Amino acid sequence: MREILIIGAGRSASSLIQYLLDKSQEEQLHLVIADLSLELAQKKTNNHPNATPIALDILDKSQRKAAIAKATIVISMLPAHLHIEIARDCVLFRKNLVTASYISDAMLTLDEEVKEYGLIFMNEMGLDPGIDHMSAMKVIDEIREKGGKMLLFESFCGGLVAPESDTNLWNYKFTWAPRNVVLAGQGGVAKFLQEGTYKYIPYTSLFRRTEFLEVEGYGRFEAYSNRDSLKYRSIYGLDDILTLYRGTIRRVGFSKAWNMFVQLGMTDDSYIMEDSENMSYRQFMNSFLPYHPTDSVEIKTRLQLKIDPDDIMWDKLLELDLFNDKKMVGLKNATPAQILEKILNDSWKLQPDDKDMIVMYHKFGYEINGKKVQMDSQMVCIGQDQTYTAMAKTVGLPVAMATLLILNGKITTPGVQLPILKEVYLPVLKELEQYGVVFKEQMLPYLGYKYS
């Protein structure tokens, strides 16, 4: 039996583990599912004969090294900053590695050694990053092979709630790490390119500069800019492109409402609020507002945000129970962002029967035979329930598929890499279609940006 060590049994691992267990007999696989919580690892194995749950603290060097040394291949589903120690051990014990996270600078420093030992460290193998790279490169390579010249590439992705489970005014529920949602867009200016002109959006304006998208059968969406779209020019071989933009999809109206939190300062993660443990939701709200001898917290909020009582924005705030003086924060030494995350979790947590939805949308503009054309590619994936979410499927399945392709010698290019080569994206995208991850392509007139 070939041993696959899966480190991290969290939300994104459910579909990954199920896929590999389903293939375990025919492919002669034994899964070792390792997590800090043995209970969680046990839950994910589902008493399968070809799976062994273990408790693993990756900060325990001897424990970590022992588990990696025994494995044939390693999958890390941990947060990105925890991959590096695992990666170094994989170099030490000559093991291939697969992750769903962005390639960090620390990971890149291992590239020379990884190549020297003929190892494959496949990163960015999930949804975004992952399926976005693969589906984009497939079309970009096809356009180039036909003799086309790329003019425009825009790529959008969002984890949302499915229409049948959309039960709040924000048209949103947490399908992924809530903390990442609260901190989205922070840490640097958003940079992109439109018709050859560099564009920059500071965090304070990010959620008021949105693009609109129509997705067949699902209506209208909006997208705000990701932090750095420009880094994908060289990765995708688009150094001469005129327009390059990557964004995050939400339902229309979300960004304008979210901007209220940004303007008040509630998404700030840089300082601790005094006595946060004993603070009520109402006190949290009031802490961002000016003092007034007679005006209520509600009135001060409306004045500060310039919203009327009959504005849908006001209804969205009320729905979150932000003015409740009985509900307590209950978090010690918490930042505003951490408190906001807790409050939002009350309202936006996926319920057991809720379904989530992934929407991905690419726009390709190119010139071929003297004519400018555009092709749009859309993918919508709906989850099953709170456990087997569309997010878990689209993050976990590509990781599992790549792992099997590496084990079976179908992916052979060594190095620290992301899935932009045909040997990776062609088989993975083809197999993903069997699981309902299908891109629909449509030819359109080239629009571009007339006034850049």
Automatic annotation (TrEMBL):
GO terms for molecular function: saccharopine dehydrogenase activity. InterPro entries: AASS (IPR051168), NAD(P)-bd_dom_sf (IPR036291), Sacchrp_dh-like_C (IPR032095), Sacchrp_dh_NADP-bd (IPR005097). Residues 126-437 form the Saccharopine dehydrogenase-like C-terminal domain. The keyword Oxidoreductase applies. One of its GO terms (biological process) is lysine biosynthetic process via aminoadipic acid. Keywords: Oxidoreductase. SUPFAM superfamilies: Glyceraldehyde-3-phosphate dehydrogenase-like, C-terminal domain, NAD(P)-binding Rossmann-fold domains. The keyword Oxidoreductase applies. Residues 4-121 form the Saccharopine dehydrogenase NADP binding domain. One of its GO terms (cellular component) is cytoplasm. This is Saccharopine dehydrogenase.
